[in-house]
Amino acid sequence: xxxxxRNSADMRKAEQKTVAFAKLLNIPTSPRKMRLxxxxxxxxxxxxxxxxxxxxxxxxxxxVEKLLLSAIANWEAKxxxxxxxxxxxxxxxxxxxxxxxxxxxxxxxxxxxxIRKRANxxxxxxxxxxxxxxxx
Length: 136
What we know:
Elements: H1 3-18, E1 20-27, H2 31-41, H3 46-54, H4 60-79, E2 88-97, E3 101-106, E4 112-117, E5 120-128, H5 129-135
Antiparallel strand pairs: 1-5, 2-5, 3-4
């Protein structure tokens, strides 16, 4: 490995040291419904996001709350210390489509209507607020 490549790899690793993420795969809700929940917490400080998710009446909010707690725990494990209050924020959240299950529903006159049972993948990235201010 060349010197420039090693230096850029070291810089990338140093940036990734402060960022932690968590993924949730094959959630059996449609991506459209999940995006409604995820849009509420994108860019918000972590404690506030947990409060928003706790009191949201959407079914997907419970899953995203569990994912956010996992991302916080990943950050704490990576940095070997507890996260202080107002230190972390939700840097980015991405919702993508997962493979859908295709089923048939009986219809009149011997036909069948297709039912698409959608699923999604969610990736949540948590970062420190100092990095947010430094990037801006």
